[in-house]
Amino acid sequence: MIQKKDFSPTVKKLKDVPMDHIDNTSQFESYLKTRTFTKLYDEMLWGEGPCYVPHKDMLVWSDIPNNRMLKLINNKVSEFRNPSNFCNGNTLDIEENLISCSHGGRCIYRTKDYVNTTTLVNSYQGKKLNSPNDVVVKKDGTIWFTDPPYGILSDYEGYPGEQKYGGCYVFRYNPISKKLDVVLEDMDRPNGIAFSQDEKKIYIADTGEDIKHLYVYDLDEGGNLINKKLIYDFKPWFSDGFRSDKDGNIWTSAGKGIKCFNPEGEIIGQILVPELVSNLEFGGKEGNILYVTATSSLYSMELNQIGAKYIK
């Protein structure tokens, strides 16, 4: 049950703002089996980080202010971990271990067998990380994550603290060599992060006070980010979390809705959601269930499209 008494200032500020109108393309319309979301759960303060685990047919996600993680199995919701140390974003590594961003631990966790949790990385050059926010794993096993300070600004999503290394970076961590590299250091508040389906591009959101942008970068042969391109300015909304589908389209949270962009960065459609959206995930045995965390609720929708991780 919800323990804290209020929603965040961001939710209160934006909950009554009307959404912009987008004309869906025929391509986007072909992805929709229905226009109605099914509400699966509604007892969170701010849900984030949905991650579908294929071999368990399980969805795991975070309820950050309530310091817990939840799971959906056989259409039933229960607690996955409580307390969670204020975990936020979640993904799977190449062995289907759960990789989680912890605000409270200021670290990246790995959970093997969905029982045993260890800390992979919690510092940069001997200084604490801020509060890792979102994470993605490349097919080579490297873990890429964003590190804004949201979890140390107050006790709402973590523990109050100070920024130690002097920035808000995007990192790449190699769990084999234990090497941590900075791949981007010029964003105000790096947030959501995802690769394109072929891993030739990486999408990263910046959600600073006056910056609500989604960017895409090409990856060169050395894994460096080049050719920065602005995809969309979401103000007053923000692009918090996103996933690629099998055709390279990016589906992203966008206020009280989800926007979809094709590989060329052109918007092709929008689905409205009853609440302010944080994140989304492709799941289900066929990969065509769109799970959405939106403020207090978890929603699902069946699509005529599958996520990138279901490409054989």
Radius of gyration: 18 Å
Low-confidence stretches: none
Overall 3D form: globular
SSE topology string = HHEEEEEEEEEEEEEEEEEEEEEEEEEE
Name the features:
45% strand, 4% helix, 312 residues, 4-stranded antiparallel β-sheet
Task: Give a verbal description of the structure.
The protein is mainly β and 312 residues long. The protein has helices at 9-14, 26-31; strands spanning 38-41, 47-53, 58-63, 68-73, 76-81, 87-92, 98-102, 107-112, 116-121, 123-124, 127-128, 135-137, 143-146, 170-174, 179-184, 190-195, 201-206, 213-219, 225-233, 242-244, 250-253, 257-261, 267-272, 277-283, 289-294, 297-302. The protein has one domain: TolB, C-terminal domain (Neuraminidase, 6 Propeller), CATH 2.120.10. The strands form 7 sheets. A 4-stranded antiparallel beta sheet has the order 1-26-25-24, with no helix packed on it. The model has no long low-confidence stretch (mean pLDDT 95).
